[in-house]
Amino acid sequence: MNNFEWVDETEETRDEEFAKGYLKIQEGSNKFHLLTSCAPLYQVWSQGESKYKIAEKGDKGVSVKGVCLVLQDGVIKEATLAYTCVKQIKAFLENPEWEFEDFPCENVVTINAKNAGQKEVEYNTTLSPKKTPIPNEILVELSKRPTPQDIVEKKKEKVAPAKQIDYPSGAEEGINPDDIPF
Asked: 79 near 23, Cβ under 8 Å?
C-alpha cells in the first residue's frame, strides 16, 4: 500500500473548487444562462508552456474567445467561450423571432461539444425557446461582479503589469522650482 491517496483526493477537491467559479465545457451537453455579453479575449497558444497566453501586437495564430458570466446550477460562473459558440449565440440573439432585448438572457443556452478538450473540437450551440426568469438574488449578486470587460483587462494586467516609473522629486535632485525660468 502506498501513502499517496491524498494526492488524488487533493486533485479532486481542487478541481471541484476551481469548477465552482468557472464554466468548463465538457464532452456532451453543457447548459447555462448567459448573464452578460461577451468581451473579446485575444490569445495565442504557447508551445513551451502548453497553454494559451494573452496575445500581443504582432503575434501569429491569434485565437479569439468570448469572456462572459453565466448561470449554471444556480451558481454564477466566469466562462471563456470559443469564438464559434459566441458567433452561434450572437445569431440567435440577433434573430427577432427570439425576442431578445437585453442581458441576462432568459433562454437556456446549450453547447453540445464533441471531442471537448482536444484541438479538433466541434460545437453546436442552441437556445431553448422557453424563457426562464433569472432569480432576483442572482441579479443582485451579478450587479456586484466585475464586467466581462473588467475580467479581460485584469487578465491582461496579470500577464503584463504596468511598469511604474519612479520619478525623483525635485528636492531629491537638488532642484529648486524658483530656479526654473518658465
From this structure: yes
